[in-house]
Amino acid sequence: MSKIKLAIFDLDGVITSTTEEHFKAWTLLFIKHFGIRLDQDLEVYTKGVSRIESFKILLKHSKVDIDDMKLIECLANEKNEIYKELISEFNESKICPGVIDVLNFLKQKNIKIALGSASKNAPYLIRSLKLEQYFDYIVDPTGKNSKPAPDIFLDAVNHFGYDPEEAIAFEDAEAGVKAIKNAHIFAIGVGDEDLKDADVKFKSLTDLKSSILENIIRGN
Ligand code: B16
Ligand code: MG
């Protein structure tokens, strides 16, 4: 009998990788409007962070002051148009290694699957990747506090009426792992980042063998 009833997945960096496209879109926007070439090292600060929060972080690092919230929103929308163009060709080949095996394993165990992404483009990407059939629920990040706030992960748990202890969540970003732990959910870190707050960590989901996952969902 498994203790875990729900698995929540982050999108960028776990299901697919859109980090490059997000940062390229910001880079093009900053060159066009401010004549500034963003330092690649800034990318990590925007991972898992909402569109507006990412923009504010990049503006601060670039020492550009904009007080007008309408202008911030307008420029963030422009970045999103560039980003949408960059992801317009995404298909199944962009699914990260090991994802399908993990999703199939969870389905077999009758564990609900939710998407807990900060991205408003998540439903579009899940359709492009042809993964809709796996997801029982996709969190709408609109109006929710950005990760590391727990809002996105708690919304998924509350949607099913479960307790946080009955869920696990997968994340690639520091802000995301913090959000999971702030929601009191078991955190599975994925990828190259340090992610010191994660309960367990794998370089890739291909390293998460079904015997390990079985133990995690039994709460061992
Ligand atoms: P959008 P995740 C995050 O995705 C990205 O890592 C982050 O770079 C982006 O700013 C955020 O989504 C919002 O995305 O502009 O598409 O709404 O890791 O939470 O899946
Ligand atoms: Mg992510």
Tell me what you see in this structure:
The protein has 220 residues and is of the alpha/beta class. The chain folds into two domains: 6-17 and 91-218, HAD superfamily/HAD-like (Rossmann fold, 3-Layer(aba) Sandwich); 19-86, Putative phosphatase, domain 2 (DNA polymerase, domain 1), CATH 1.10.150. Helices cover 42% and strands 10% of the residues. It has nine helices and six strands. It has a six-stranded parallel sheet, with helices on both faces. α6 (122-128) links the parallel β2 and β3. α1 crosses α4. The N and C termini lie close together (12 Å). The model has no long low-confidence stretch (mean pLDDT 96).
Helix content: 40-55%
The SSE order reads EHHHHHEHEHEHEEH
State the domain count. Answer: 2
Oligomeric nature of the chains: single chain
Q: So, the CATH homologous superfamily of the largest domain?
A: HAD superfamily/HAD-like
Secondary-structure content class: alpha/beta
Measured by DSSP, the beta-strand proportion falls in: 5-15%
Strand order of the largest sheet: 3-2-1-4-5-6
What's the architecture of the largest domain, going by CATH? 3-Layer(aba) Sandwich
Bound molecules: 1,6-di-O-phosphono-beta-D-glucopyranose, magnesium ion
Computed CA radius of gyration, to the nearest angstrom: 17 Å
